[in-house]
Amino acid sequence: MGGIDLDLIAATAPFLWDGLCTSFQLLLLAMAGGISLGAILAVVRIAGPKPLAALAATYVNGLRSIPLIMVILWFYLLMPLATGRPIGAFTSALVAFTIFEAAYYSEIIRAGIQSVSKQQLAAATASGLSQLQAYRFVVLPQAFRKMTPILLSQSIALFQDTSLVYVVGLRDFMTAVSVTANREGHLVAFYLFAALVYFVLCCTGAQSVQLLKKSMVSQ
Amino acid sequence: MTIPLRLDSRKAARSEPDLVQRPVAIAIDHVSKKYGDLDVLKDCSMTVRRAEVVVVCGPSGSGKSTLLKCVNGLEGFQAGAITVAGTSVGDRRTDLTKLRSQIGMVFQHFELYPHLTVLQNITLAPIRVLGRAKSEAIDKAMSLLRRVGLADKAGCYPGQLSGGQQQRAAIARALAMDPIAMLFDEPTSALDPETISEVLDVMTELARDGMTMMVVTHEMGFARHVADRVVFMDGGCILEEAPAEAFFAQPSTERARSFLSKILRQQ
Questions:
Q1: Is the pLDDT of residue B4 over 50?
Q2: How many Å apart are CA A76 and CA A171, to the nearest integer?
Q3: Cβ within 8 Å of residue A127, ≥6 positions away
């Protein structure tokens, strides 16, 4: 790849590495937050009282019909108005990703819960576990086991989406690449390098998911 | 199907007048249930006294499993009342969770939790519901596993066990809560013929030890030799309720007669 000046990339590596770390931080925290909130939304939709279930459904369907980039931008612009002080690009992006991804995760989790036999819930409640305990100890562990590959695939998409935080000026990997590329005047080289990094990371992730799926089937 | 001979001696020990004086454990009183327009239970009444074994039989779709599930509130009902040890199941103020923790239930398809080991299956509710210490729950689980002949399977996952072993583990799981009564919902219907007897043996032993049992089953050998009374259902109605000997010697309704002759011919 003649277009890529490896020495130059090596020289800027610490700066790019910081950006990559920010991307991963955002990914892991948004995954944790999104899956937790998604699980709550899914359980509320399946087992919660009707008005709450309807509210959760509206939330999920509403967020899934808005482009992510708007959620990120709105949150960044509107939160300071609501709270009266700026909340910072990272926190703002993290919250935006969490509430957005929760909608997608919750649909995956809901399908996972529904794939667990109703009789398992019956057996758990028959033994005296409360509804909440039955979900926590019996239904959700089985559901999560079944849906782990899909949750991970969704998280790979989330990792790619983290590049959208450039709109709020957060210095993730993509933004770091972009800044460096403009400063050094090697746009093609740096953007190709960025594409390569995303490709390798996501491809490895997707391959791992495939392996995991296979090992789960053979179990 | 072979039922050990010692069963008859167990039944001889509890004579009819003795049973009548025992307190009622489960009382089902004029219970009716509908799914939409469909009547699944029509004015059903029966009782199970303490330490009594009552078999509920009847053709499939007769409502017997539904009636059983009403006893611990897994299914609701629209009319009538069910009381278990004096607590009303249908009452809104009743703490159903607490009541269920006192009633053991065994399902047709075992319903062991596949992600937990046999031991964890048995200790989950005692630890989480009764608040027992882990070590205490494990000791109790191990002694129950020895009782059902599965002590060596404690660390196995349900998927590694045969159907009969899974059902015995499920019985141990129910017993771990020290239930005041046990409900069995066709416990042998999903089993291979050769493993049915190992489950029936465990149930027979339980009956001998004085457990109160309401058993929905097609196993007429078990009903004849272990049950104190037999309840026959058809079309959502309880058509007969009689001591086991009387039921098998001379069923009083035509439908029970034809059901018995069909099912006994199969077995």
A1: no
A2: 15
A3: B100, B101, B105, B124, B125, B129, B173, B174, B177
Token pair for B126 = 């005692």
Q: What is the arrangement of strands in the sheet containing B103-106, beginning at the earlier edge strand?
A: B103-106, B181-185, B213-216, B53-57, B229-234, B237-243
At B219, list the tokens.
């196993």
Model confidence pLDDT, tens digit, residues B6-21? 444 455 445 555 666 7
Q: Number of C-alpha atoms within 13 angstroms, CB side, residue A25?
A: 16
Mean pLDDT by 10 residues, chain A (219 residues): 66 89 94 94 91 95 92 88 84 92 94 93 96 93 90 91 88 90 87 92 91 76
Taking CB atoms and an 8 Å limit, are B113 and A119 in contact across chains?
no
SS3 B234: strand
Residue partners of A81: CB distance under 8 A and separation at least 6: none
Go through chain A and tell me how many residues it has.
Answer: 219
Q: Which residues on B lie below 8 Å from A146 (Cβ)? A: none
Average pLDDT of every residue of chain A: 90
Structural domains of chain A in order of their starting residue, each with its CATH number: 6-218 (1.10.3720.10)
Q: Which B residues in the span 88-107 are in contact with A, Cβ-Cβ below 8 Å?
A: 97-98, 100-103, 105, 107
Cβ atoms within 10 Å, residue A94: 20
